[in-house]
Design brief:
globular; six-stranded mixed sheet; alpha/beta; 3 domains; 14% strand; 314 residues
């Protein structure tokens, strides 16, 4: 994000607030050896565990979050084949629309972006493409409307993306550890800015719906770790942007934050290997708000109690 960031004109108050909060010109400087040190310590801590893994492992932010939440849900979820629904497809379509907006010429409406995103996804050969093709007219209209709501919230409350900020949407990022035996992977909704030498300048943004959760913070810390392992310089700021409220929740990146995230990865890998065949450990059960989406919530005592308590409270 460039030095002209705070001088944008024609913004509504919500957009100006976001600009003011994210556009600080402070650029922390990190040790040039930080990325190498993190990589070395992760390799050293993970090598004994990976020696027990029969094949390469891949861990995403979602898997890591579930491993540190309810292990029983993690085990149940990975045994269930994923199926698309309009709510789950809405996020993917909307994120694609925002990705298109970064380089789109002219001034397209949110609905234009959504319809173009749908067309591009439908033309691909992947599972979501098949799901979209099979929708009837009313279902497609519902998916379009829900995605349009997401994109409209973004365009109404987030400042227009200036190319000088180097915006990148839906950017995949990976870290390879232990001789490529372990891959950490993620996809950042939106990044702005870039590092200059060892001076941090990038802002990582996750676009969220619903209420803020502790896991949202941990997800972005995981991305900050991946960015540091990849580039050697951390991002300067992590932002969870809650669309319905137009509210950014930000956290400055520190070296302590990155070491804490690295430890969380090591602990998560240990849990994953312990839950793998041929002699899996008994998964723990941790009740919480996510019980409502768990595939075993009708047979898990802790989950049933959680759901009943939630129902009674409402």
């Amino acid at each position: 994000m460039g030095d002209d960031l705070l001088t944008a004109e024609g913004l509504n108050p919500a957009q100006q607030q976001v600009l003011d909060e994210l556009g600080s010109l402070d650029r922390p400087v990190f040790r040039s050896e930080l990325g190498v040190d993190l990589q070395h310590n992760l390799d050293e801590a993970l090598a004994p565990m990976m020696a027990e893994a029969p094949e390469p492992l891949f861990i995403s932010k979602r898997q890591l979050g579930m491993l540190h939440g309810c292990e029983a849900r993690f085990v149940a979820d990975r045994s269930e084949p994923f199926t698309w629904s309009i709510p789950s497809a809405r996020g993917t379509v909307a994120h694609k629309a925002i990705e298109l907006s970064v380089a789109y010429r002219g001034n397209p409406t949110p609905l234009d972006l959504v319809e173009n995103a749908l067309a591009r996804i439908e033309a691909d050969e992947r599972s979501l493409s098949t799901f979209i093709r099979q929708l009837d007219e009313a279902e497609r209209a519902e998916l379009t409307g829900r995605s349009n709501d997401f994109v409209t919230n973004f365009t109404e409350t987030f400042p227009p993306l200036n190319r000088r900020w180097r915006p990148v949407a839906e950017s995949s990022i990976k870290a390879l550890l232990c001789g490529d035996a372990l891959t950490l992977q993620g996809k950042v909704d939106l990044s702005l800015g870039y590092a200059r030498g060892t001076e941090a300048g990038k802002v990582l943004i996750d676009l969220k719906t619903g209420h803020p959760k502790t896991a949202d913070v941990e997800d972005l810390r995981f991305y900050a770790l991946l960015e540091t392992l990849k580039v050697g310089v951390p991002p300067r700021l992590l932002v969870n942007y809650y669309l319905e409220a137009g509210a950014p929740r930000q956290e400055a990146v520190t070296e302590d934050l990155l070491w804490s995230s690295a430890k969380r990865v090591v602990d998560g890998v240990a849990k994953l290997i312990a839950l793998n065949e041929p002699n899996p450990a008994t998964p723990n059960r941790t009740a919480g708000p996510n019980c409502r989406w768990c595939p075993i919530n009708t047979e898990c005592p802790e989950g049933i109690e959680q759901l009943n308590a939630t129902y009674d409270a409402n």
